[in-house]
Design brief:
The structure holds two protein chains of two kinds. Chain A has no helices and twelve strands. Chain A is mostly beta strands. In chain A, a hairpin with an 8-residue loop joins strand 10 and strand 11. The radius of gyration of chain A is 14 Å and the shape is globular. By secondary structure, chain B is mainly beta. The relative contact order of chain B is 0.33. Chain B is globular, with a radius of gyration of 14 Å. The chains are: A mainly beta, B mainly beta. Chains A and B meet through strand 5, strand 6 and strand 10 of A and strand 5, strand 9 and strand 10 of B.
Chain lengths: 116, 116
């Protein structure tokens, strides 16, 4: 079974509007971390935001926030006030405490296009 | 330099050639990774090195040979590749501690490899 599922291959959003990118995950490990990365067309993956399984509050980093619903095993990324520079591919990833050190599982990604 | 540096950025090689990809991190991290990103597949973990020791080899064909001479440098030696090996090869690093799962990766910009 896939551990990270991103069901939206592509998304469009109007500049200055908010957009939600979906991510669901599957794990039996009670201790895990969830991450979002951005990959512009240049290729480099950029870390955006992190949410721990025991965190009580949703993570926020500037215009990025993570809508963490533990019971539903979802960790959606919300980008507020979209900018043209937000056009990129976005990956959701998970690390479990009881796996080989450092190993992360990535979703297939969502391509976001911001329209002017 | 800062962050994770990958060279070369682009590489075209014949199936009988031997080449190497280089990754260098200036962050003092103790773990390094090779990922393969193909057009039609999700990110695939290839190798994990923790404190210079290989801790993961994700069923990678022997035509890919990693080398980690120290915690700052990681190489991927390539020989007799196939056209289906054409992809973006991403190097990443992280700071690992036993039982800790909240460290994200810092990625390099990748090497775009074309096998002809």
């Amino acid at each position: 079974a896939q551990k990270i599922t991103q069901t939206q291959p592509g998304m469009f959003v109007q500049e200055k509007e908010a957009v939600t990118l979906d991510c669901t995950y599957d794990t039996s490990d009670p201790s895990y971390g969830l991450f979002w990365y951005k990959q512009p067309s240049s290729g480099e993956m950029i870390f955006l935001i992190y949410q721990g399984s025991y965190d009580q509050q949703n993570a926020t980093e500037g215009r990025y926030s993570l809508n963490f619903q533990k019971a539903r095993k979802s960790a959606n990324l919300v980008i507020s006030a979209s900018q043209l520079g937000d056009s990129a591919m976005y990956f959701c990833a998970m690390r479990e405490a009881n796996t080989n050190a450092g190993k992360s599982t990535f979703g297939d990604g969502t391509t976001l296009t911001v329209k002017p | 330099e800062t962050g994770v540096t990958q060279t070369p950025r682009h590489l075209v090689m014949g199936m009988t050639n031997k080449k190497s990809l280089k990754c260098e991190q200036h962050l003092g991290h103790n773990a390094m990774y090779w990922y393969k990103q193909s057009a039609k597949k999700p990110l695939e973990l290839m190798f994990v090195y923790n404190f210079k020791e290989q801790t993961e080899n994700n069923s990678v064909p022997s035509r890919f040979s990693p080398e980690c001479p120290n915690s700052s440098h990681l190489f991927l030696h390539l020989h007799t590749l196939q056209p289906e090996d054409s992809a973006l090869y991403l190097c990443a690093s992280s700071q690992e501690e036993a039982g800790r799962y909240y460290y994200g990766y810092t990625f390099g910009s990748g090497t775009r490899l074309t096998v002809v």
